[in-house]
Amino acid sequence: MKKTVGIALLAFGILLTGLSASQLFRDHASQQEALAIAETLIAARGSSPTADPNAAESGIPAGSQPETTADPAAEAVIGLLQIPALDETYPIIEGTEEQMLARGVGHYPTTALPGGNEQILLSGHRGTVFQRLGELQPGDRFIIEMGYGRYEYAMHRATIVAADDTTIIAPQGEEVLTLSTCYPFGYLGSAPDRYIIYAYPIAASNDQLPQPAS
User: Does 107 qualify as catalytic in the annotation?
Assistant: First the structure.
């Protein structure tokens, strides 16, 4: 009996491992596809919008100059996030539902886009795109490439909040890049907290960066 139970548990464990590996493979493939779309979108910057093959994917109407106030379509690939300190580059997807986060970093739709002079909120899974977020230190840079321009930010501080704390999404009165992921990083199951990073445009001196609104 014990032997049968042991074999059953072993088989179940192998099945779960196989399913997890399969999911990771699919997510990686989706991220690479989204990355290619984002790179093409950035490469087309400055050329005629009508010649951009990703106009529909990016949510930017053909024949019009992209604006920071554009309202991208859900699940659209809208840009790239580069984190030089980690040597990582990720596609930015419009939306933060599971299917969006499986493809890259998700942009919270009700927050601003880069250049919009308000809060920009990007979210990512702690086990994939943001698994090394905790390694970053104040002063580390974030570069966002959009179809309409390049934006650089310097990390100001990190904080940890409860998973149900919605106060991190609030008008700031200035441009603030906010990155969010589940915390603790190695926690199994639904994590109880969120790890939050605040970063400001690098035009502001690191020793004069304002405190994010609480």
Answer: no
